[in-house]
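pasting GYF domain-containing protein for the record, 294 residues
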Amino acid sequence: MASWFYASEGKQQGPYPEGQFRDLVAQGIVRPDTLVWSEGMAGWQKAAEIPGLIGGGGAPPMMPAGGPPMMGGRGYGGGSLSADFSAFGLLGRAIVFVIGMLLVIPAPWVAVWFYKYVTSHIQVPGRPNFGFAGQPMDIWWALMANALLTYAGATGISYAPLLATIVNAFLAWVILRWIVANLSSNGERLPLSFQGSAIGYVGWYLLMLISTITIIGWAWVLAYWMRWICRNTEGTRREIVFSGSGWQILWRTVVFSLACSFIIPIPWMLRWYGNWYVAQFGLVDRAAAAARGY
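structre below
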């Protein structure tokens, strides 16, 4: 039986079984001007343009197979990601995540639990039911070692903090590759992989730490680091881009930090910052991305 998707307020809804979807039509939730898509259609169409969908009748005609093109991409077949984190949901999970990492042994389980929550609240145009398929024991050693090294700075060995930083950067590279490889849609892993080198990642990691000396320079380093990560994520016909600027990252981080100093606003500020950060990632046609300088 066919599954249907529809667009509402710029977000993709679905999938819905044929019967349930026609109930949405009958209830007026899906209107004649609503963009809809089902397997077998070449692209999104207004519901009124599909024979038999509005006002009864038979099923829509089948068209060449393929996934729905990304919405909101100005003709590039792309669009921006969006997130709908809840204030206390994100904060509560972030606290448990930090505690789990500090306790080391629970690190693999709390990491997977946290990544599943985050991805389930991110909407990727053309990728319904975005999620994370990784399992705690996939790279348990990297997650536990990453957590354990947070204590290295407390040792009395002078070279331990620097060595721990480099090793931690390498482990972060391993974890990033694992996360990208386990992103999923409708329960199926996406054919994505992170191809950035370990040396390159460690270099960006160290540059990020050094840039904190400048007080504000870290924000621009972070913006370019995100662009480097996006350029080195492969497996999709569309380019993954990061559009946030150093200035945008800086002023939002300052506002976030100042507001959080009052304690009470923390849940809402974390949600505000997290939703904005996710929205800076998008998908565009690779040729268009090159033309726009990404």
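Residues 79-291 form one domain.
Residues 160-181 form the longest helix (22 residues).
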